Amino acid sequence: MSTLAVTQDDIVKIVSEHLAAVDNFDAQLDNFIAAGRDYGGFVSRIQRRVASFKEWIETAEENCHVARDREVGPWAVAARREAPSKVVLTGPAADDEEEVETENEDEADYLMSDHFIGMLAENCQMFHELETLMVQLIHAYASVKDAKANLGVPADEAVQSHIRLLKQYNDVKDVGQQLIGLIAENRGVPIKTLYENGDYGVTAED
C-alpha cells in the first residue's frame, strides 16, 4: 500500500491540471472585453484576480516555500437587478460594485443569465475552492518539510514534533483528497479512476 507523501512534484502535477482551466477562463474574459462587455471594468477586475492567481500557482509550481505566505483572496461575484434596465454587478472583492444601465431589458436579462453572471460565478467559485485547498496543502507540505529538517532535537521536542507531523499528515491527506476530487470533476471522470491510475501516488485504500 502506498502512503500519502506530498512532494513538490505532486504540487507541480496539481498546478498543471488547473493551468489549462485558468487559461480557458482568461480567454473567455478576453472575449467579453473585446466585445465591449467589460461593464465599467467589472470583467477586467475578475481578469486581474485570475492573473494574480495564475502567477501564484506558477510560483508554487517552482517553489512551495516561496508561495506559502499566500492568503486566499476574494472570488465572489454576483448580480442583482434593481430596475428593468439596471443591473448591479459585484465582485470579486466585497466592496467592488458596478451599476450598469443597459440599453434595453434584453441586455439586462443577459447580464443576469447563466451565460454571463452564472458562468463567471461558477468559475470564480471553482478557483476559490482550488485556491483554498492549495493554500492548505502548501502550508501543510512546507510545515512537514520544516519539521523533518529539525529532527535530532531533544526527546520532548521530538515528541511534539512527531505529533505535529501526524496532524500535518492528516491535514495533507484531507486536502489531497479534496484536490483529487476537484481534478476528477475538472476532467469529468469518477474519482476512483484517478486512484486507479496512480498518478498522484495514492490509492483508494490510503
UniProtKB/TrEMBL annotation:
GO cellular component: Swi5-Sfr1 complex; Swi5-Swi2 complex
GO process terms (BP): meiotic DNA recombinase assembly involved in reciprocal meiotic recombination; meiotic joint molecule formation
UniProt keyword terms in alphabetical order: DNA damage, DNA repair
Pfam families: Swi5
InterPro entries on file: DNA-repair_Swi5 (IPR010760)
Family membership noted in the UniProt record: Belongs to the SWI5/SAE3 family.
Protein name stated in the entry: Swi5-domain-containing protein
Source species of the chain: Cercophora newfieldiana
